[in-house]
């Protein structure tokens, strides 16, 4: 958790239809392809540009939930989908290990299958082979599917010389209580959508496509608020009830690409326009947190719980005054407040694009909720993004006693696939 957050995506408007009107279809239901067709030309054009609408200005009124299914992100592009889009309502993270005997050839065939499946599903089409029909009646629902490579992938495929230096294992942190079985992996897939069935459909298709080439190492499920649930798009809240940051980098920022994406002339060449994803399963100790009074919680975070505004005053987006004191001469924003410690200007400019999911995996044997944050952050270099911030948090973040980092992964996510290419082709066939 850092003082940076992603606004919820603004879903696309759906065409108005007369309630109860019959829609003829030879499959006895509105198929995903047919729903796209009924959206009309305008909806499709807007859908094609929908990749970055999560950062658009808030509309004057809420978008009805009935339009959620029409949103579409594009598979082909400069960057992979699932990085700059707004927060999905439902997400799945899954890591795979190559099976014994599977190498570079098998990995290339797998990425080719995965890329084609992702392209089809993101367009609202069924998968090529043996579609399960789970999402038959839904539109694409802003589905994104993103692929990455872990540190161990390169040794498994004999491509150690192609492994980026930025993919070196993360250092140990004092808050780590990591389960190795739920950490890292050869391959990583991130799935996000605004409909739970669409997201699960993609997860199932990816798992089936793995075939004999790879087996699931771990899999995690998460969620965010559904677009349209609030009167206007708002910064997300986490399971502690806090507005989860406000200072996420935005594509409109002049240094956004420099901070988030590997440059076109960067090293290694196959990572051009790609990014590095740090994934952390952070358990929130909610019973302990909820024993604090609201003012105590606000002091831990450094922001008001009601609206996310800094304790120094103003609104959510107001600049935090780190020097402001109260009548007793005490800092209004405590020196160990989470929002103070994680500010980029307090960390040598270190910044990362956060696109997290909340999770709840039931109760443990003592009745304590196994819940928290699937922290996902993107940066051009984790040694200049995630690592320095996490090291500083280790040295005295007031929020740390209420968190436990239980799983971790770092993945190299190459740039987007051009038409006719599959993700990772420049690595696997270079």
UniProtKB/TrEMBL annotation:
InterPro entries noted in UniProt: Dimeric_a/b-barrel (IPR011008), Dyp_perox_C (IPR048328), Dyp_perox_N (IPR048327), Dyp_peroxidase (IPR006314), EfeB/EfeN (IPR006313), TAT_signal (IPR006311)
Pfam families to which the protein is assigned, alphabetical: Dyp_perox_C (PF20628), Dyp_perox_N (PF04261)
Segment forming the signal sequence: none
UniProt name for this protein: Deferrochelatase
Domain Dyp-type peroxidase C-terminal: 235-417
Annotated localization: Cell envelope
Cofactor(s) for this UniProt protein: heme b
Family label: Belongs to the DyP-type peroxidase family.
Enzyme class: oxidoreductase
Ranges of Basic and acidic residues composition bias in the record: 16-29
Record-annotated membrane-spanning stretches: 35-58
Reactions accelerated catalytically: heme b + 2 H(+) = protoporphyrin IX + Fe(2+)
Sorted UniProt keywords: Heme, Iron, Lyase, Membrane, Metal-binding, Oxidoreductase, Peroxidase, Signal, Transmembrane, Transmembrane helix
Main function: Involved in the recovery of exogenous heme iron. Extracts iron from heme while preserving the protoporphyrin ring intact.
Domain of life assignment: Bacteria
Region (Disordered): 1-29, 303-327
Main location: other
Enzyme Commission number: 1.11.1.-
Gene for this chain: efeB
Record carries keyword Heme: yes
Chain ranges of the Dyp-type peroxidase N-terminal domain: 80-224
